[in-house]
Amino acid sequence: MDFFHKKYTCEIEGEKFASEVDLMTHYRSVHHKLILKCHKCGKEFIHEKDRLHHVREEHEKEMDARVHKSEHKSKASNNPQDQVDSNMRKFGDNL
Ligand SMILES: [Zn+2]
Ligand SMILES: [Zn+2]
């Protein structure tokens, strides 16, 4: 009976929706739920923990890179792995 593979289920009454967007619209219009948005990509979530999980899974790398950049600013040149990496990159460019 599930022709559309409706895998998004309303947690309040168990209604099913084919897409997450439909479910979010339902939550907002029918249940007046506060929808949380990812500030990075605009993806919508009902629970803060889901949004945090998404940010951790999808955007953690970007945040890590930013943190490490400032952390290693002064000692980056002393890291032999950085030199290897830059050599590898040059090598790759020549191919
Ligand atoms: Zn509902
Ligand atoms: Zn996101």
Question: In words, what does this structure look like?
Answer:
- It is a single chain.
- A hairpin with a 6-residue loop joins strand 3 (36-37) and strand 4.
- 53% of the residues lie in helices and 8% in strands.
- A two-stranded antiparallel ribbon has the order 1-2. Strands 3-4 form a two-stranded antiparallel ribbon.
- It is mainly α.
- It has two domains: 1-33; 35-72.
- One zinc ion is lined by residues 10, 12-13, 15, 26, 30-31.
Q: Any descriptors?
A:
single chain, 95 residues, two-stranded antiparallel sheet, elongated
Q: Write the H/E string, N to C.
A: EEHEEHH
Structural class: mainly alpha
Strand composition percent: 5-15%
How would you sum up the global shape? Answer: elongated
Tally the beta strands.
4
Helix content: 40-55%
Bound molecules: zinc ion
Number of domains: 2
Distance between the termini: 55 Å
- What is the mean predicted local confidence, pLDDT? 80
The biggest beta sheet is recorded as: 2 strands, antiparallel
Rg, alpha carbons: 22 Å
Number of helices, counting only DSSP H or I runs of 4 residues or more = 3
Strands side by side in the biggest sheet? 1-2
Unreliable segments of 5+ consecutive residues? none
